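Protocol step 4 of 5: obtain the predicted structure for the target chain.
Materials: sequence only (see below). No template structures provided, no constraints applied. The aim of this step is simply to have a reference model before the mutagenesis design in step 5. Sequence pasted as it appears in the construct record:
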Amino acid sequence: MNCMTEICPLDNGWENLSNGEEDDIDWRVNTGSTPSTGTGPSSDVSGTGNYLYLEASGGCNGLEALLVSPCIDLSVQTGYSPKLYFSYHMSGADMGDLHVDILSDGILTEDIIPAKIGDQGLDWVSDTVDLSAYVNTTVKIRFRGITGADFASDISLDNIGITNGEPIAAPDFTVMVNEPCINEIFIFSDNSVGNVNSYAWEFGTGAIPSTASGIGPHSVQYISAGNKLVKLTLTNGGGTSSSSQNLQVLSGPNSTFTYSIPSVGTYDFTMIDAASADSVKWDFGDGATSTLLNPSHSYMANSNYQVELTAYGTCGHTITAQGIIVSGIGVEEWLLDHGFNMYPNPARDNLFISFDQCPSDEIGIRLKDISGREIRADQFSCSSDPISIDISDLSSGSYLIEIHAGSKQSTKKFIVQ
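Step 4 output (C-alpha cells):
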C-alpha cells in the first residue's frame, strides 16, 4: 500500500489537499470497521453510514492529512453564536494528533481549540467550537490529522456541521375544552417563543389523533379516561427542545350499586363509587325515590321490583338497574302460630327447623344468597322431629331461607360461620 499516492475525492465541496505538495495522505471514506485491528471505530456515529478516516498501516506513520471544508458564510442574525460541531474517534496504542484550524479573510489560524493527542477511548466523542469571533465573515474549516508511530493510529471523523447559533425555541402550549371529559373536543394551541422549523405533538394514550405536526391549533378527542402526558417538541437551527403537560381526562360517574337485606322487606342500597357522582336519584320500583347516596328502603308488598340508580356528574350521567324479589312480607304470623324455631343462628354445618304444630304435611325449603339468588331447594315431611338442613358446603356469610307451607311462605336470614 502506497498511502501517499492514494487519491480520495470527496463530495459536497470538501476536499483532500494534494499529496506530496500540500500534505502527505488523504482522508478516506469508509463504512464499518477499518482494516486494522486494535484501532479505528466499528461503524460511523449512527451505526449505518459512512465516515472519514486516516489509514496508518503500510508505512503511513507520522504523516499529515489536511481536510478542508467549502466556504462557509457566517452572516447570522444579531445575537446568534455560530458553532462548528463534529465527532471524532481516536482509539489505538500508537495514536497521533487531530487539530482544528480556520481560514478567515486570508488568514490561517491553527488550533482554534486544543489539539486531540493520543488515545481518546473506544467511543466516538462529540465536540463543538465557538465561531462567534468569525461572525459576518466567510471561513473554511481545516481538520489536520497526523498519524502516530505505528499502524494502531487510525483517526476518524464524522457528523461535521455548522449551526448558526440560533437560540433554541421555548416550547409552550395551552389546552381549551368545555369539560375535560372523554369524547369532548380538546383544542391544543401553540404559544412557543422563538423561530420554529418543525413541530411534533404527542397527545397521550387514547387520543384521536395520537400525534400531529404543524403549528395547529389541533383538535383532539380522548376515548379513555385518566392521566394523559401531552408533549410538544420543537426543532430549529439551534437544536431541539420539548415541553410536557399532564392532562386529566374524566369519565362519567359510576352508577353501579349493591344491596343487603337486614330484615324482611327492608333493603339497604350502597353505591359502589359514591365519590364519582355529584348527585344521585334512586327509583325503588314501587313509586318511591331517594336522593341519598346510600339509602334504605322498606317495601310494603311482596313482588318483583326494578331498582334504578341514576348518577350525575361533570361528564354527564349514567344509569344502572337491578331486579330484586321481595317476599315474606305480612306472613310472619303463621310461623308464630305454629311455634316456628330455627337454630343455631349463626350455624356452621347444619341448620335445624322445628314446629310445635306442623302447618302442613310438606315443608318446602329454599336456600338463597343475600342477593336473593337461589342456591338449592328441598321438600321435607313435617313431623315432631326437627328438619336438618346441611349447610356445610356454604361459605361464611349471610344467607336467606325461604319456607313454604301450603299457600304460605316466609323468608328468614341466617348466618354461616
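Step 4 remarks: The CA atoms of residues 302 and 326 lie 5 Å apart. The chain has a mean pLDDT of 90.
Proceed to step 5.
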